[in-house]
Amino acid sequence: MKYRALKSFSGKIAMEKGEVRELKSSLASEYVACGFLEKMKAVRKKENK
Fold first, then answer.
1. Is the distance from CB of 15 to CB of 8 less than 8 angstroms?
2. Structural domain boundaries of the chain?
3. What is the pTM (predicted TM-score) of this model?
4. Distances from the Cα of 2 to the Cαs of 22, 47, 48, 49, in angstroms?
5. DSSP character string of 13-49
6. How far apart are CA 2 and CA 38, in angstroms?
7. Which terminus of the chain is less hemmed in, N or C, by CB atoms within 10 Å?
């Protein structure tokens, strides 16, 4: 799952504000709970017919 950093932080992982990274949910869950990360929504491409 992709996650976006809401704030810059460091710990088991380090990310800057606005950075998007693929992370395991087990690793990201504690940072989501603290408000440092948010899950990215899947974006579907439109098909032009």
1. yes
2. 2-39
3. 0.78
4. 4, 23, 26, 30
5. SEE-TT-EEE--HHHHHHHHHHTSEEEPPP-PPPPP-
6. 9
7. C
Write out the two tokens for 30: 């504690």
Q: Residue 49: what pLDDT?
A: 66
Distances (CA, A) of 40 to 8, 26, 48: 17, 16, 25
Mean pLDDT, residues 13-19 taken together:
96
Q: Compute the C-alpha angle 29/39/33, nearest 5°.
A: 35
The phi, psi pair for 30, rounded to 5°, reads: -70, -30
